Every structure is written in structure tokens, then in C-alpha cells.
Amino acid sequence: MGKLVDDLQEKLQKSALGGSEKARKKHSGRGKLLPRERVRLLLDPGSPFLEFSALAALDVYEDDVPAAGMITGIGRVSGTEVMVVANDATVKGGTYYPLTVK
Length: 102
Fold this sequence. Notes:
alpha+beta
């Protein structure tokens, strides 16, 4: 059981990185926040975020498409529970895949 949990944690951590290191550096080099940074700043400090699709598109396409290029979940903004959808431009330049919109 521990091996399965470790495997899941590893996949979630990899997905949380988003696109390649090169894509993340390019994005940051343009003065833009990475998508998970945007989500973190949007949410109330210390509030939970329930992410829905961190493993979407895992092993589906020939290339890596972490979280199908989207961050989706429920969080709290100004005390109100909200649905958050953030496109990740570090994943193939923000390309939408079939699983991105499914």
C-alpha cells in the first residue's frame, strides 16, 4: 500500500510542476506568474484547495500533458467557495487537448 501512495504522490508532484522546465522559465522570464502561483494568490490565505484533475491525461497522449493543461478545483475567495479553472500555458503553450475540455 505504501508503494502505491508513494507512486501517487510522485505523480501529483510531477503534475503540479506543469510544463517543462524550459517552458516554465520562458513563462517566468516574460514576467508572468506560473498558473499555480496565480491560483495560490487568488485564494484566501491558508484556505484549502480541492484540486479535481491533477492526473487528467496521465499516460493518455504521446507527450506529457500534466493535468490536461488545466488546474481545476474548489477554493475560497473572499470567504466564498468558488470553482477555479486556470489554463496552464507552460503545457504546450496552453493548447487544449480533448481531455482538457472533457
